[in-house]
Amino acid sequence: MTSPVIPLRWLDDAAPAELPDGATFGVPVPRGSVGSASELSLAADGSAVPAQFWPLATWPDGSVKWAGVAVGAGSFDGASIAVGENPAPEAPVAVSSSPESVTVSNGLLEIVVPRTGARLFSSLSRGGTVVAENGRLVSALADGPSPRDARTDFTGVVDSVTVEQTGPIRAVVRVDGHHVAGDRERLPFRVRLVVLAGADSVRLVHTFTWDADANTEFLAALGVTADVPLRAESHDRHVRFATADGGVFAEAVRGITGLRRDPGSEVREAQIAGRATPPVAEWDARTSTRIHWIPEWDDYSLTQLTADGYEIRKRTASATNAGRAWIRGAAGTRAEGLVSLSDPRGGFGIGVRGFWQSHPGQLDVRGASLPSASVTAWLYSPEAAPMDMRFYHDGLGQDGYADELDALEITYEDYEPGFGDPHGIARTHELTLFAWDATPTRAALATRAALVQQPALPQATPEHIASCGVFGDWALVDRSTPIKSEIEDSLDLLLSFYLSQPEQRRWYGFWDYGDVMHAYDFDRHTWRYDVGGYAWDNSELSPDLWLWYSYLRTGRADVFRFAEAMTRHTGEVDVYHLGRFKGLGSRHNVQHWGCSAKQLRISTPAYRRFYHYLTADERVGDLLDELRDSDETFLGLDPTRKVRPDAATYRADRNAVAVGLGTDWSALAATWLADWERTGNERSRDRLLGTMADIGALPQGFLTGEALYDLDTGRFATDRDRISVSHLSAVFGLVEICSEVISLVDIPSFTEAWVQYCSLFLASPEAQEAAVGQALTGIHLEQAHSRLTAYAAVARDDEGLRELAWHAFDGMGEWLLHRNELRIDRIDVPAVPAPVDEMPTVSTNDAAQYGLAAIQMLALLGDQVDELASK
């Protein structure tokens, strides 16, 4: 095998000044070059850096395709990965297990995870000093959506603990459980605790799944909390909140500045800095003898109930526990989501990534004057109104599917009674637990808060990723000719517009952050947030793919983070993880779960694999695993039940399930491919390769449109001889998956079936009839399909197909974006509540498919586009 060299870069280009939390990421490895991930090593500036490697995916020949990489705390630049010796860290991560608990230590901190009970961790220590204990999950469900409705408190209870990695650089402990109140069990959760060598922090990835009844149960609170032992006097105890734009709110529990009598400059300076003050006996006696009159501020809260405003309040202790009035301490815009409580011997902090973006959130300190206080990060603030997830309208007429289909003609809403149900959707948060050895300085806290929000992330260079041939047809940015420059400019303009929209339109909130809207209302100058199926996009026509391919070819950090937020959202909120719709996703709607079209085209791993492989994120790996048997969903719900010509008589037969060869098979193929390359699962391999061969054996190949699938054998019957095409078949990942699997395995009949489909979809009716005996109907989205024609042109080396592909991309059919006609208009007040940008004629369907068509056109025909444009 040829030894590869994998050059690395930092996502944000410049190397971070420090890497206190370490980093985890993924890199592609050239096919056939490395047999085992353990052969790899990391070097920076010519010196070996201790790192941990593991396989994320393999090529069909068994060689490593993607490797996960972990590095501990420290700093490095100019790094690359190659085959070589991997040095051991000075203080490796160690995991020890007993029947009662799992303990992880890295020489700096130690965390103990009980196997049973109501604690995520029993203790977190730094240098032998316990800085937090009794870490746990807490929640509340209300009986109604009003703040006045009764609430029931729940506590997270552990069902199982699994050690997933044991070091020497990275250890991962997975905790699964559910929330309990009496005999009620709700909100199953999965938490991963990640410890890296040399880090003074623990990464906590928290996922919960909504399994309550949206009509009678309303989420009133959800949080992570821990007790914090305190050993110093209250004037040496310090509360810190990271506020906005690098700001820090920093106060002592008992403040000794601003008093009528001055304790002395040395005392004041020490308290402001967060250091231990001199002994009280050394203070000015006019202060020291009256210290008992200075209030102790026991409780602090930072609430972020909207994306645009936080407030910090505090109150004094009450001897009767009756409570005191809250006093406002500060207010501002967007808090960075980190809270800390400490004294000179140590302390504890929690940071929440995407804190203000996923509002309503809250950070609490309670009992700061007591020997043991608590710190809580509320992922859903108890001060917000209980979450109302009921379906947003009463439904349609009583004539079943007829009325539901008729509604599509006006609000584009696919409604069906009982289907607008959130039961089974999920939400993932990323948190960081900090184990301080003393009170952090303001500057240090601000730095750590910034890293919580934008973790330092090594990445392989775009050039290296492209050279590995992963993810199908794409190429690096190239402005070497006038037409290429025009196309690149149009891609930049579309990205710029969409990157601006979450901020301008405030696409934030607990369930919404990460998604974009589907279509625009130019009369109201707003996205159609309240119009049926035109509201939240839910991956319709693959914006996820557009963003990820845009990142691969540019390496842009802003595009990566946009795609990252979308992956977190669409893979969790838009997909069902338990219940009757498990494995399916919901089509676009006013509510993410509102549409009755529950389909694999939304849950497809084609949208999630990028993030998993680029970051080695285990939670997205869970999402891929969940879909392993998603072909079984066709027994529970027919995705074409409302439009099937034989709807009155069709009944799913386990051994002859009707499966579409477009949106359905592409999702299944992506599922099987991901499972095969990640786990080596032969069942998934055989179903992928078998159905590819079966499609190739169908008389009309992909043009058949739908084939009968045997769930037990994982194969299609090959005797169906008909022609039926849809403009939607290829725009949910089919193009990309077909290109990728053809590059991985050699099944000539499948390749020919795909090339035939690609060559005929936009062909003239006469050419279609000459080839298959009839003209194709249902031909739309011509510009989007230009990349299919380009693929066929390359496969057949056909000049006529090249010209047709360019004609389709450059100006054929409806739903067309032309690169030279794109513009951004500014709409000012009072026409809108606040100034916004809009892009005339653009919808997310258009943007995503134009983006993908342009990227793949440049990859396939890039050297010829100027010549084609001149004809």
TrEMBL record:
<dbReference type="Pfam" id="PF21346">
    <property type="entry name" value="PcRGLX_3rd"/>
</dbReference>
<feature type="domain" description="PcRGLX/YetA-like central beta-sandwich">
    <location>
        <begin position="93"/>
        <end position="448"/>
    </location>
</feature>
<protein>
    <submittedName>
        <fullName>Tat pathway signal sequence domain protein</fullName>
    </submittedName>
</protein>
<dbReference type="Pfam" id="PF19501">
    <property type="entry name" value="PcRGLX_1st"/>
</dbReference>
<feature type="domain" description="PcRGLX/YetA-like N-terminal RIFT barrel">
    <location>
        <begin position="6"/>
        <end position="79"/>
    </location>
</feature>
<dbReference type="InterPro" id="IPR048329">
    <property type="entry name" value="PcRGLX_1st"/>
</dbReference>
<dbReference type="InterPro" id="IPR048330">
    <property type="entry name" value="PcRGLX/YetA_2nd"/>
</dbReference>
<dbReference type="InterPro" id="IPR045793">
    <property type="entry name" value="PcRGLX/YetA-like"/>
</dbReference>
<feature type="domain" description="PcRGLX/YetA-like C-terminal alpha/alpha toroid">
    <location>
        <begin position="459"/>
        <end position="865"/>
    </location>
</feature>
<dbReference type="InterPro" id="IPR048331">
    <property type="entry name" value="PcRGLX/YetA_3rd"/>
</dbReference>
<dbReference type="Pfam" id="PF21345">
    <property type="entry name" value="PcRGLX_2nd"/>
</dbReference>
